[in-house]
Amino acid sequence: xxxxxxxxxxxxxxTALIPCMPAPVLIxxxxxxxxHEGAVIVDMAAASGGNCPLTEADKIVVKHGVILCGFTxxxxxxxxxxxxxxxxxxxxFLMQMLEQAxxxxxxxxxxADEISSxxxxxxxxxxxxxxxxxxxxxxx
Length: 140
What we know:
Blueprint (H helix, E strand, L loop, with lengths): L1 H5 L4 E4 L14 H6 L5 E4 L16 E4 L2 E4 L4 H4 L1 H18 L1 E4 L2 E4 L6 H6 L2 E2 L2 E2 L3 H7 L3
Parallel strand pairs: 1-2, 2-4
Antiparallel strand pairs: 3-4, 5-6, 7-8
C-alpha cells in the first residue's frame, strides 16, 4: 500500500531510524521506478544506510529519473534551524516528564512511561544499561 502512495508523491522526506541499527528500507527500488521523473527523495537516514537502497551517502544522484538526496549532515547545512529544532525537541521531551503539583511543576515517576524509563541511564548511583546492551536487546 505504501509503495502505491509513494508513486504519487512529488517529494518524499524519509527520516526513519532505529538507534544502533541500520536504517529500515521503506522506499524500495520498485517504488522509485514507479515514481514520476523529477520526483525527489530526501533520505535523512543516509548516514545509516538510507531508507531507500538507491540513496548514496553525501551525494545527490538520479536513479530511474528520480532525484535522491543523501546528505548525511543536514544540521551543518542549516545550523540556526537545527539549533531551534533541537531546542524545541528538548523542551517537548522535558515537558513530557513534568506534571503540575502543588502550584508548580515536578518530575513524574521516571518509570511510569516507556520514554522516560528508556532514557534514564543512571538511577540511585548505578548505570541502568549501556547502549550496546540496548542494541543487543533490540536485535542489533
